[in-house]
Amino acid sequence: MPKIEMLRAIEILDSRGRPTVKATCSLNGGASASASVPSGASTGEAEAHELRDGDASRYGGLGCRKAVANINATIADRLKGHHFVDQHALDSALLKLDGSKNKNNLGANTLLAVSIAFARAHAVERKVPPYQHFADMIGQPLRTLPRPTVNLFSGGKHAGGQVVIQDVLVVPMSATTVDESLATVYSVYQSAIELTSKKYDVRALTADEGGLAPPFESIESMFDDAVGAIEHAGFEPGADVALAIDVASSHFFDNQQYHLGERSITSDEMVDTIKAWVTRWPIVSVEDGLAENDWDAWPTLCDALDGARTAPPILTIGDDLLCTNPQRIQRAIDHRAANALLLKVNQIGTLTEAGQSLSLARQADWQVTVSARSGETEDNWLADLAVGWAGNQIKIGSITQSERLAKYNRLLEIEAETGLPLADW
Ligand code: 2PG
Ligand code: MG
Q: Does residue 251's CB lie within 6 angstroms of at least one atom of ligand 1?
């Protein structure tokens, strides 16, 4: 049974140059491992509390020294020398120490760093790879590798705001391996650079997750350009490479209206708009098509997308809507508000709670996309988690920045090691 010998944390910087937390956990048998936590920009209201120092003179208030001190003092003092039979036991102790509903006391970023560092150290102690340990944690066998959904174009809060929707992603549909998926995405990404730099007469500039962000005239031209890039790369749109979108619509919903550039429309009109998009373009997944608290309209969207196409089926994914929170997921299941979960463990704060979210989604026969955040580190645990928890898809960002590549490269490594098949759409 693992006994915690040492817990230490330091403040490091994420891909936006903002502070975040890295924790190291050592067990008495000598196993030791670290984990760093990511951070979002287009965050949901219902996310667990991310603890920041609030001292405006340092990193504009974004420092994580309090979170680090919470680990080095409060948490280390209480957990050192204690045995934890499994992840659930460790996470329960963390939740008890925090004692608040929303991780307001110690911070979800603080708890997650410890939760994942412990999981990894435990995997080392068990002499199994982290992906195997994650699978054992939820009592499931390894099944498949997650199909990559890769950021091509960016807007919204991750770019200059020229278009309100946040991501247009490409999904290699006919690829049968991670390796082939990434080679496919590379060709599409290169042709998108070529086409958009000519069309908009700008150098290819990238947004927070590496997506291209030329001055698109409209949402529609963003979709047209994505399809153009797929064709120019020699693939058949929809059959070989499809599109997924993160509308991130909570961030342009105000006064019961969706403010789509010059147009302000109602929830019903937003559903009609999205339905028209999926009819016109080969879109197979719509994340946060509606705002996080527009609960009444979500079942209409889910129905509309369900009926829009059967092969391949269109996912109605909840991100801000669900915040990887079991209560919100249960509500969405009860109301048929979505049929897929975007799973981001830092939205909830511990692996155990994220595992509960996963299991609710699975029981409802939902698909699960395991997702990174827009602020990431070079840590690669996300790839192991997505494999261990058999995510149907993985969303990491584009294929250009090292904080993203760390995860893609880890997926390639896991593929070479396990030979697991790629998940079907
Ligand atoms: C999202 C994520 C990742 P952020 O909205 O899905 O793209 O963004 O981490 O900023 O919430
Ligand atoms: Mg999102």
A: no
